[in-house]
Amino acid sequence: MNNPHEIENLLRQMPLVKPSADLDARVADVFAAGAAGTETRRANTPEVRRANIWGRPRTRQAWLVGAVGGALAAAAAIILAVGLPQGTPTSTPGPQPASAPPLVANGSLTLTGAAPPLPVEPVRLEQNWSELSYEGLVCPDPETPLRKFRRRTLEHVQWFDPRRNIRMETTIPREEIIFVKAPMQ
Amino acid sequence: MSKAEGQQEPEGTVRDVLEQVYRNHRQGLFTLALAITRCPHRAEDAVQEAMARLWQSPARPADAVPYVFSAVRNAAIDQTRRAATRRRLESASIFNGLALSPASLAAGEGTSGPQAAAITAEQHERLRRAVDTLPQADRETVVMRIYGGLTFEQMAEALGEPLPTVASRYRRALETLSRRVRPAMEASHE
User: Fold this and answer.
1) Inter-chain contact A16–B96, Cβ cutoff 8 Å?
2) Least C-beta-crowded within 10 Å: which of A13, A145, B95, B151?
3) Is residue A135 part of a domain?
4) In chain B, which among 32-51 make CB contacts under 8 A with chain A?
5) Is residue A84 situated within a structural domain?
């Protein structure tokens, strides 16, 4: 086994871990964004995008769906609370106004109202988690036992500019240890 | 040696050159980043980050291949440093587990029989461990040469080191690998 070609050949036969198809899309994004003279969509924030603390699974898409869903639900609730006229029954359809044009006229669809415009302003979503756990008594000094608590907080901020299609995420984990003096019996 | 070895990328726009280098060396670039970061996600981040940096860089080298490899290497080292500060270092291999599945091994698929298949699997496993435990600098030279298809001149340029240093490091890495895989290799020759 003194022939280096033998080990080179063996190395070439080894099955390599393949890059995901997502990598191609990400690199294409870099080229496209560069060509458009704008910042790359994700290259500048790979670290924060991949932030995954305390062993949580990478559920970016699921989180995004949840966040967007939550935002839509909140928007719908605000519209229902503010936009609907007081006393208007919503469960039974009222008579159509005489002046309203038919939805379908002469076999073609007629739009009766403009669709709500897509958001063009940057959107900022912020979520915070906190967890407090008790970790028992500690006795640095025999006369003053202390209760040890660990508080973990996670601040997750997502910023999205729909006009330029730029998305940014930051995750800031914090951990504090709190000692509380325990009462002596 | 891969077909990409020794090829210089043709003249063209920055985008053309980068795209062509990426297309021809996609696996090699990713494997180099993975050999450094030991994490597939960080390796992909490193490749993307390197492409973004190159895109914004005004430098236009004559041979883009070592230039791109060097950028990916630097981005991967940056990724590793960031991971180290967060104490999230990982240890993924550049190899994809066994070359043959247990079922294939039992059937002796791709070889002359189950015994030969088992020896091949043993060889691959030893080699995987040997590559994974090589010093990082040695592993980089092996990856650049074998999976990136770079010439020694290109490797020296990408690593910023003299050619004889790179060549001797590569030779030393192969010797180390040979020593560690030898028992399985000898068994396969018997």
Assistant:
1) yes
2) A13
3) yes
4) 34, 40-45, 47-49, 51
5) no
CATH fold of B101-190 reads: Arc Repressor Mutant, subunit A (1.10.10)
For A182, the domain range is 121-185
Taking only the tens place, the pLDDT of each residue in B2-32 is 444 445 544 567 778 888 899 999 999 999 9
pLDDT score for B177: 92
Nearest CA in chain A to B85: A47
Tokens of A26: 């990400």
Distance CA B140, CA B159 (A): 9
CATH 1.10.10.10 residue ranges for chain B = 101-190
Residues 20-49 of A with CB under 8 A from B: 20, 22-24, 26-27, 30-31, 34-35, 40, 42-44, 46-47
How far CA B5 is from CA of B19, B70, B190, in Å, comes to 17, 16, 34
Nearest to B36 by CA among B158, B160, B130, B141: B141
Nearest to A30 among B42, B51, B174 (CB): B51
Chain CA centroid to CA B163, Å: 18
| B9-94: CATH, from 1.10.1130, 1.10.357, 1.10.1740, 1.20.144 | 1.10.1740
pLDDT in tens, B111-136: 556 666 666 778 888 888 899 899 99
> ipTM greater than 0.85, yes or no?
no
Cα radius of gyration (chain A): 29
Contact A11 B177 (CB under 8 A): yes
Which part of chain B is CATH 1.10.1740?
Answer: 9-94
**Out of A4, A19, A23, closest to residue B174 by CB:** A4
Beta bridge mates, A159: A124, A168
Q: What is the pLDDT of residue A101?
A: 44
Mean pLDDT computed over A32-39: 60
Is A185 part of any domain? yes
**Count of domains observed in chain A:** 1
Q: What is the mean pLDDT of residues A161-169?
A: 83
* Chain B contact present for A7, CB below 8 A: yes
CA of A69 to nearest chain B CA: how many angstroms apart? 27
**Residue that is written with structure tokens 């914090």 in the block:** A174
In a mutational test of the A interface, the residue from B14, B24, B27, B45 whose CB has the highest number of chain A CBs within 10 Å is: B45
Cα–Cα dist A179/A149, whole Å: 6
Residue A7: which of B47, B56, B174 has the nearest Cβ? B174
